[in-house]
């Protein structure tokens, strides 16, 4: 057996959860190593650099460093990390592994046997099983569709931003020049970040410096939607459209659209679910927009929307509402918003991307009966394994329970800061930061020297997240939270996040 075949067998046999864990740990560690070699303008702590690498890989955009300290080459590395860490890219890799698994299963290849005949061609599919052939071809076609979806929308977004910066807005170009950022690097970085729902922007102020560049905001809003919350609906529409154009693929397209659960691809949802998802997403955006408009429209001197006209406010509110789910880009200082809006943001960040408030009944009876029959047939040894698995299941908590545990631990690690700096290190700010990391959003309340109870003469306001002022132990916990949040789909109940128990 060749090394490639052995690796393929190992990945097929390995649980998908552990594949994801190893994948994110590997790209985060590799990204940290490359960033360390390239050396930033200002040498940070190695932990902060690793934190940034994990944040980019898990598309969390939690920040403990100012973004402008990174060189152009480092920004390119972060762009690559965001691209390969995005859900669309990783789901495409999952499809390739699933297709490879079908190849092995169709030829009944025993991956655990070392004496596998190396001359056996894995690409052959038995002709007698038409259903399996159709399923394999459908997954293969779906892989190409997802790849095209990923490349085309990123390319179109990059081109639109470049055209906007070159031909439309001189003010945005001047901002980039003043910060020493290349137009091409910024365009690629911000589109990849937005599409992957990361939220990193290569400026210290995030999108605040571009809050009056309405064209740029309008370009980024659909990118944030089609790359995350509306990805299943847009993907299904793309497949349906290709079926109308490519007559030769009509059978494959029909199989994909009618057998989404059989395909086993998380992002390929049934027709009804896809339609309701669109309504739910725009419903959440509408609720937030109305709430933000009602609470923040009348601008005061310290309000984030001060200095904007009514059109700029409308676009800004829409941009903020869209990004509060998972993208995490902001045009205002969140600490200036009202408490009611911040609580609403906490709820939006907690919800998984495909949350849909529709009573879709999931039939589980047949699956449960099949499992019981398998347990009886597999004997005592299998039953012992099942008992051990059930014992472990007692320690699998709800998502809310895990968040409470993480917040509890961070309150312990930051107990000194909570005592000495209670206005910055209040419980709500900690909860906000943890849920933002868990939701892979990147929203942060920031840190202000002006809120210190005991002012420090050497304190300087920095444009990074609140977690940048945490202890090393607190940052390590937040790294775990980001990775856990990126893998939460393995412990979700059909996206029903509002069922807390």
From TrEMBL:
Statement: the UniProt record of this protein carries the keyword Ubl conjugation: no
Pfam families, A to Z: TrkH
Transmembrane segments: 12-38, 75-97, 141-165, 185-202, 214-242, 272-292, 304-322, 334-351, 391-410
A molecular function (GO) term: monoatomic cation transmembrane transporter activity
Record bears the keyword Translocase: no
Cellular component annotations (GO), alphabetically ordered: plasma membrane
Subcellular localization(s) per the UniProt record: Membrane
Keywords: Ion transport, Membrane, Transmembrane, Transmembrane helix, Transport
GO biological process, one term: metal ion transport
Broad class of where this protein is predominantly found: membrane
Family: Belongs to the TrkH potassium transport family. HKT (TC 2.A.38.3) subfamily.
Protein name according to UniProt: Cation transporter HKT15-like
Organism for this UniProt entry: Cucumis melo
């Amino acid at each position: 057996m060749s090394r490639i075949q052995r690796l393929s067998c190992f990945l097929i046999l390995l649980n998908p959860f552990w594949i994801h864990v190893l994948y994110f740990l590997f790209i985060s560690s590799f990204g940290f190593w490359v960033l360390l070699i390239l050396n930033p303008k200002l040498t940070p702590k190695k932990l902060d650099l690793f934190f940034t690498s994990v944040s980019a890989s898990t598309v969390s955009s939690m920040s403990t460093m100012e973004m402008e300290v990174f060189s152009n080459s480092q920004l390119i590395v972060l762009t690559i990390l965001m691209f390969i860490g995005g859900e669309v890219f990783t789901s495409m890799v999952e499809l390739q592994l699933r297709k490879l698994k079908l190849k092995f299963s169709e030829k009944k290849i025993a991956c655990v046997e070392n004496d596998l005949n190396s001359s056996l061609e894995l690409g052959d599919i038995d002709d007698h099983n038409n259903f399996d052939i159709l399923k394999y071809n459908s997954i293969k076609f779906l892989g190409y569709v997802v790849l095209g979806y990923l490349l085309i929308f990123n390319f179109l977004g990059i081109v639109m931003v470049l055209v906007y910066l070159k031909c439309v807005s001189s003010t945005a170009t001047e901002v980039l020049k003043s910060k020493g950022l290349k137009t091409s690097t910024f365009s690629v970085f911000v589109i990849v970040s937005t599409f992957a729902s990361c939220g990193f922007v290569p400026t210290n102020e995030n999108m605040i410096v571009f809050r009056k560049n309405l064209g740029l905001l309008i370009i980024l809003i659909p990118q944030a939607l089609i790359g995350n919350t509306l990805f299943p609906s847009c993907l299904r529409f793309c497949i349906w459209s290709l079926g109308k154009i490519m007559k030769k693929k009509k059978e494959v397209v029909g199989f994909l659209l009618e057998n989404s659960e059989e395909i086993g691809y998380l992002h390929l949802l049934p027709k009804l679910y896809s339609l309701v998802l669109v309504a739910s997403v725009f419903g959440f955006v509408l609720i937030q927009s109305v709430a933000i408009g009602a609470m923040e429209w009348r601008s005061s001197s310290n309000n984030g929307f001060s200095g904007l006209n009514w059109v700029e406010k409308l676009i800004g509110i829409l941009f903020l509402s869209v990004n509060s789910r998972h993208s995490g880009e902001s045009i205002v200082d969140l600490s200036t918003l009202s408490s009611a809006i911040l609580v609403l943001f906490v709820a939006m960040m907690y919800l998984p991307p495909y949350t849909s408030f529709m009573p879709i009944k999931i039939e589980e009876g047949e699956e449960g009966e099949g499992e019981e029959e398998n347990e009886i047939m597999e004997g005592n040894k299998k039953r012992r394994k099942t008992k051990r698995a059930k014992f472990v299941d007692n320690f699998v908590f709800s998502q809310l329970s895990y968040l409470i545990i993480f917040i509890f631990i961070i309150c312990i690690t930051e107990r000194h800061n909570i005592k000495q700096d209670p206005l910055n290190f209040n419980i709500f700010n900690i909860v906000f930061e943890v849920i933002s990391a868990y939701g892979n959003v990147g929203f942060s309340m920031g840190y202000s020297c002006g809120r210190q109870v005991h002012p420090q003469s050497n304190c300087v306001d920095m444009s990074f997240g609140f977690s940048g002022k945490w202890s090393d132990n607190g940052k390590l916990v937040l790294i775990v939270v980001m990775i856990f949040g990126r893998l939460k789909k393995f412990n979700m109940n059909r996206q029903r996040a509002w069922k807390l128990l």
